[in-house]
């Protein structure tokens, strides 16, 4: 999910504070959002959307799946995301509303249940993404700061560290409950902090090459587990690395706040994705040059800390740990905010039980939705590791992206009066095929745990849908209201 694409999420929070969702009265027409985002700020937001927990927490896990050719899955993940971006660009040009995948699914297929499941899958991806960030917070970056400042060394999977991750989730819930006001400047600062950490890694790699350190031969090594193939190793690593490329799709939720979105979106999104991908590939190359893949895999979510230690032993490690800590905090907060507001939106649309839309009388925030999403996150943090949660996030979104690519083709028959970006037909076709392939069991090499976690989450959505249908019957869905 998006790391810094927060304008839409924060708008949801502000609207939740200003009006209750519990009332069943018809909504009055709202004024348009302020169109304050130009091309440069949009480009910055797209880059910030993508950067975050994925690269800071999963580099070691990806290395464990492929070996020294760590850069390859990140590059391939970019290609798949890039193709899907063409579909999003065509659709946001045709329908410049802050609703994203749910809106496109509803317009293309007009199947209420499918629209609901897409929206619920997006919500679940926010929870799994935030949960992976919580584990990175406790097991990696806060743990390192405890070592640096207090000389306290705790095992990554100790009960204390897991407890810290759970407390972190609870703290996010408190912030979420109190209400989150929008601050573009704060998000720009957080994006700069995230970016600075990755630039540090890249500069370390450049220095290592300049002084003759590192082992270039590792960059072509692909490790294949017994009974596996090179293709399976590459696709398995790409399926996980895809988690690092998600977030670009959330920028469509800013369409109503952009000046001339039809004109500025294509260039900003495509260039922003290319910049993020270049940063990721350079970070991966640096990691492989300096450290054997076996050691990166063993380091897990601490892989980048190890890169700093080996490549620049004089660099204060606490600085990078603090940067990583802020990166995952930003990621987790935005994803939990998005998840609770999307659940709140579904309750407002009367497609899940209405009590999820209950708003606290004083804080004016959807407290039951916050409690529910926090509870799910606590369960995930207590029972899964970072690799599984990252893999589940990418699985959920790969399924959503497959549907969006198909929807793009279906909606070609629906014409609009204004001019808009049109993707080359091969892009959504190839995007749908590749997204579906990376989501397939066996073909992608994805572990079954990803499907189990995703299955349980979607089953919860199915139960909520069923309960609501029994109690209230069928209701028409207006996806554009889910994002507000």
From TrEMBL:
Iron is among the record's keywords: no
**Which InterPro entries does the record associate with it?**
AA/rel_permease1 (IPR002293), APC_superfamily (IPR050367)
Q: Which residues cross the membrane?
A: 41-58, 70-92, 113-138, 158-177, 189-210, 230-248, 269-291, 317-344, 365-384, 390-411, 423-441, 453-471
Statement: the UniProt record of this protein carries the keyword Cell membrane: yes
Q: What is its main location?
A: membrane
Protein topology in the membrane: Multi-pass membrane protein
Question: What is the name of the protein in this document?
Answer: Amino acid permease
Give its localization. Answer: Cell membrane
Q: Which UniProt keywords apply?
A: Cell membrane, Membrane, Transmembrane, Transmembrane helix
């Amino acid at each position: 999910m998006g790391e810094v694409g927060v304008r839409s999420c924060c708008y949801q929070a502000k609207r939740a504070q200003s009006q209750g969702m519990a009332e069943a009265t018809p909504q009055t027409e709202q004024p348009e959002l302020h169109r304050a985002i130009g091309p440069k700020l949009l480009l910055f937001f797209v880059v910030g959307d993508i950067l975050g927990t994925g690269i800071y927490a999963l580099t070691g896990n990806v290395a464990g799946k492929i070996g020294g050719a760590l850069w390859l899955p990140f590059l391939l993940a970019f290609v798949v995301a890039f193709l899907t971006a063409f579909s999003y660009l065509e659709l946001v040009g045709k329908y410049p509303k802050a609703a994203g995948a749910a809106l496109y699914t509803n317009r293309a297929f007009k199947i209420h249940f499918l629209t609901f499941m897409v929206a619920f899958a997006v919500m679940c991806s926010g929870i799994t993404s935030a949960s992976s960030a919580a584990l990175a917070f406790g097991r990696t970056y806060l743990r390192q700061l405890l070592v640096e400042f207090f000389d306290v060394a705790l095992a990554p999977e100790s009960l204390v560290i897991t407890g810290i991750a759970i407390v972190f989730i609870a703290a996010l819930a408190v912030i979420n409950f109190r209400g989150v006001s929008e601050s573009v400047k704060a998000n720009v600062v957080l994006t700069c902090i995230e970016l600075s950490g990755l630039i540090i890694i890249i500069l370390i790699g450049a220095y290592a090459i300049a002084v003759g350190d590192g082992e270039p031969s590792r960059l072509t090594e692909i490790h294949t587990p017994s009974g596996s193939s090179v293709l399976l190793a590459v696709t398995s690593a790409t399926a996980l690395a895809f988690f690092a490329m998600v977030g670009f799709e959330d920028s469509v939720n800013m369409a109503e706040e952009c000046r001339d979105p039809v004109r500025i979106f294509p260039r900003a999104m495509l260039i922003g994705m290319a910049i993020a991908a270049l940063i990721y590939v350079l970070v991966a190359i640096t990691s492989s040059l300096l450290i054997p893949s076996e050691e990166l895999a063993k380091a897990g979510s601490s892989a980048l800390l190890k890169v700093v230690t080996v490549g620049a032993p004089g660099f204060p490690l606490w600085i990078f740990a603090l940067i990583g800590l802020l990166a995952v905090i930003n990621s987790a907060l935005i994803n939990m905010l998005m998840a609770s507001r999307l659940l709140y939106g579904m309750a407002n649309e009367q497609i899940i039980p209405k009590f999820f839309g209950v708003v606290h009388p004083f804080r004016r925030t959807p407290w039951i939705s916050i409690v529910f999403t926090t509870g799910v996150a606590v369960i995930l943090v207590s029972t899964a590791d970072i690799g599984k949660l990252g893999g589940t996030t990418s699985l959920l979104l790969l399924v959503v992206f497959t549907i969006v690519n198909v929807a793009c083709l279906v909606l070609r028959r629906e014409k609009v009066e204004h001019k808009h970006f049109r993707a080359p037909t091969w892009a959504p076709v190839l995007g749908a095929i590749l997204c579906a392939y990376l989501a397939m069991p066996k073909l992608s090499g994805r572990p079954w745990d990803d499907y189990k976690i995703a299955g349980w989450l979607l089953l919860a959505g199915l139960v909520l849908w069923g309960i609501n249908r029994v109690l209230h019957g069928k209701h028409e869905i207006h996806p554009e209201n889910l994002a507000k």
